[in-house]
Amino acid sequence: MNQRNTRKMLVICVFAVSILTIVAALDNGLALTPPMGWLAWERYRCIVDCETYPNDCVSEQLFRRTADLLVSEGYADVGYEYIIIDDCWLAHERGSDGRLQPDPQRFPSGIKALADYIHSLGLKFGIYEDFGNYTCAGYPGVVGHMKTDAQTFADWEVDYVKLDGCYSEPEDMDTGYPEFGSYLNETGRPMIYSCSWPVYQEFAGIEPNFTALKQYCNLWRNYVDIDDSWEEVEIIMDYFAEKQDSIAEHAGPGHWNDPDMLIIGNYGLSYDQSKVQMAIWAILAAPLLMSTALRDVKPEYKDILQNKAILAINQDELGIQGRRVNNTGLIDIWTRPISPEFDGEYSYAVAFVSRRIDGYPYLKSVTLAEIGLTSACGYEFQDLYSPNTQPQILGPDSVLTVRINPSGVVFYRATIVGAR
Hints:
There is one protein chain. By secondary structure, the protein is an alpha/beta fold. The chain is built from 14 helices and 16 strands. The protein has an eight-stranded parallel sheet with strand order 7-6-5-4-3-2-1-8. Strands 9-10-11-16-13-14 form a six-stranded antiparallel sheet, with helices on one face. A two-stranded antiparallel ribbon has the order 12-15. The protein is globular and about 70 Å long. The relative contact order is 0.11.
């Protein structure tokens, strides 16, 4: 305990005398809109048996193949740009020089060669580590090697670093995560910094310091790892709704709340449920990190992931996180202020999400004023999942009536009339 307190005081002192370095880390110019790309964990976990699972094991072939598909299947054209390794890429021991090294059988060409290949496709490369003695799967963590590991990532030309929090003390994270971030900054290489300390502190009964988080991290995981089920999507939606008054205000250009990966195209979500996840992640201004076998995504699910109108909501330049504004009759209504603005008022994204399971598309009617759309100019409503439908102009007193499929969504862009 005394050693831990000494370390905390040291970091605080370093912060006090190195304020210019830390300030530079606060504005690294990255993630001005939520990052988009592909992250391995949910779909591929820690599959390391390449003999039994040659197409699914965590290996350089998996990441090269996925990078190829990100380009050839049109994902890169609509904004998905990061290919991110998660846990289980490492060898179990550091090299003789103390540096991290990849598993030599699964990554025989090395990480720098993999990064070069991904960069050659016009994409960006991300990697995983852990603020602990070990990663969650038991591989070497960064503790005791922070400066060396940060420089190693820069030498490998990494563009994105995800730092997990297994095998560490949650009370140390308020100082340890900023410390590692400062070392990333000192390398001079721009790297998005994805932190995990809120979720670990949340489960330890510690209130995360979101003011600090948005100073030191480009994004941060708030809650549980998503698994491949509708129940998981509902749990995460409810968490973000229940916590919205304390966390939503901290999201914005350069610093985002992260509800975890998109599981669209896997096994656990129906078509309608997949549309819900995409809509709510857009409302939340969430990072859009797919975790699926891109080679197996069916066309109708690919259309959801590549819906340009919904991606534009997610990537809206204002960067305001949306909120749940109504939840009656097992219908949740979410809104998000977006551009364009007119006469000091916003346009909006509006999502009606059915939590019902009673077998038919449920009817829901509200006035716009009831859900916070109050501009006297009115709004042009366009259904983002049915773009060929005729837009309608509605004012604050107009009644909007929709029918929502069970565990489905109706998703609108409501552009304020008069905006250019």
